[in-house]
Amino acid sequence: MMILLGVIFFLGKGPSLIAGFNTLSKEEKEKYDTVALGIFMGKMMFALSFSVVLWLISQIYDMNWLFYFGLVLFIGLFVFLLETDLKRCSTAIGPDCEGITKS
Questions:
Q1: Looking at residue 24, what DSSP letter applies?
Q2: Which of 8, 56, 57, 67 could cysteine-pair with 14, CB 3.0–4.6 Å?
């Protein structure tokens, strides 16, 4: 499922599937490069899928270190996504960044 979403995003399609993007007004959506956003999210979905595949392989071959490697990769990617979003919000506090204040 994640790989299928990655393909859809990587082709620049389906930005409305990205959480919060479909709730923006038409004027707000025009401020974003939807193709670049889709490609970025597609790459992230592929990377997250890879870490899940590592978990599966670790279970099949009973390789605990591979599970932990996939877990660190998954958490690292998730933190990267949050950090990227926080950097964007720190430069332009707007309605899509409610609850986040500039420091």
A1: S
A2: 8
Q: What is the DSSP letter of 18?
A: S
> Using the 8-state DSSP alphabet, how is residue 10 labeled?
H
Report the phi/psi class of residue 20: left, alpha or beta, with left for phi > 0 and alpha for psi in -120 to 50: left
User: Is residue 15 within 8 Å of 38, Cβ to Cβ?
Assistant: yes
Alpha helices in 22-101 (DSSP H): 26-29, 34-60, 64-91
pLDDT digits (tens, 9 = 90+) for 58-84: 999 999 999 999 999 999 999 998 888
* Distance set, CA 54 to CA 41, 63, 64, 69 (Å): 20, 10, 10, 8
Distance CA 3, CA 43 (A): 10
